[in-house]
Amino acid sequence: MTGNRENGVRGARAVPVGGLLEIACDESGSDGENLTGGNTDVFAHASVRLPMESAAAHIQEIRDRIRSPAEEYKANHLLREKHRAVLEWLLSPAGPIHGRAHVHLTEKAYFVVDRAVDMLLGDRAAAVVLFRAGRPAFGDERWRAFLAAANQLLRVRNDGDPEAPVAGFFGEVDALRRAHPRTEVSLILDRLAAARPRADSYRARIVDGPTLIPVLNPLLPAVVFTAAHWSAGGRPVRLLHDRQNLLTPERIEWITETARLAGAGLGGLRLVESRLDARVQLADFLAGIARKIASDELNGHGDPALTGLLRPYVDPASLWGDERSWALLGRPDTMRSSAR
Question: Up-side HSE of residue 269: CA atoms within 13 Å toward CB?
């Protein structure tokens, strides 16, 4: 243990378990497969590296500073203006999680475009071009319609006509091609139009049987990125994650294998109850805080001070397409277009 803060745990190091470094994780902003019409436009996956006793002491200090009668604290408590000083303390370089926490961000609209273009063209560079040029070229209304159609094409659950998702998406593509024949993205639209057989095959596979890995859920790639970040120094990690229905044994096996193929040292993933693990509670705080700060920045009304405090925690490999907000949240030269 290093450092000499008043609570005696500042600088405490996470204790490896069986040679594995334990990392606690949680998320904020999950809307299932509804990424373009849900309640949030950003998904955040946070992770924390701290011993249990240190995390518990930090949770108690947050409670002592906020003094709310609530039995369970959430990020919203910290995001209230009257608790601004506590929020700034938590994220600051002198705070309890600086250098011991990490956040992977996903811009949901970009994630939809990335996944749709990858499925149809296998070209994620084209997804970046389409995403950045789409709204200026097509206008807000047509761009929203395109995003909604792409979301519907990819989502597993479809209670209506099984052919409707494909017809709806390519109807939008054809309309945009006719309205914007000589734009920066017209060649990408032409390529998408020619890829309809791939879309038909994708939907047929969904109809034929259960889908193990839903391509529209950002949690699974975020967990892989988290494992890659914390194991980058060569030490394998075990992730402790708040319970999620999505994280079935089969999907945990997929995460483990995908992480291995990406070169990450993931030695296991265990589900826990967040209310019983202070480390996961801290990850929950950070995920909710990061999602709100990033969403505000994405929508043009960010708080410069809070964005600056969040920046050291943000994963350079975050799935983010908007250049203006990313220049404030992270480093533009490190933007990644897709999960490995």
Answer: 28
